Amino acid sequence: MKTATDGYGVSIGYSYSKYNNFGSSANDYANQRNNSVNLSVFKRKYTPIHSKWSLFYDVGLSGAINKTKNIQSGSFGA
């Protein structure tokens, strides 16, 4: 990183989460499942400070798609 001042990058990510909640009776429950996919394309500008250190900032585009499913039963949500 001693002489480079510009860089380009692509970032791809995926996450999955699941939450379970239970109430006071066997029929009271709720759960949620979430899937998320994201994509980023960016240009990075470096400002060298030292041979091992630099400051940088990114300019780019980022987007995500999320899908969430909620399931409830009994009086848990009431």
List keywords for this structure.
78 residues, mainly beta, elongated, three-stranded antiparallel sheet
Task: Please describe the topology of this protein.
Layout: E1 6-22, E2 29-48, E3 54-73
Describe the structure.
- The protein is mainly β.
- The protein has no helices and 3 strands.
- It has a 3-stranded antiparallel beta sheet with strand order 1-2-3, with no helix packed on it.
- It is elongated and about 65 Å long.
- It starts with 5 loop residues before the first strand and ends in a 5-residue tail after the last strand.
- The mean pLDDT is about 85.
Structural class by SSE content? mainly beta
Number of strands: 3
Mean pLDDT: 85
| Percent of residues in helices | under 10%
The profile of the biggest β sheet is:
3 strands, antiparallel
Report the uncertain regions.
Answer: none
In order across it, which strands form the biggest sheet? 1-2-3
Shape: elongated
Radius of gyration: 22 Å
The oligomerization state is: single chain
Number of helices: 0
Give the ordered list of helices and strands.
EEE
N→C terminal distance? 58 Å
Fraction of residues in β-strands: over 45%
Could you provide a short overview of the structure?
With 78 residues, this protein is an all-beta fold. Helix content is 0%, strand content 73%. A hairpin with a 5-residue loop joins β2 and β3.
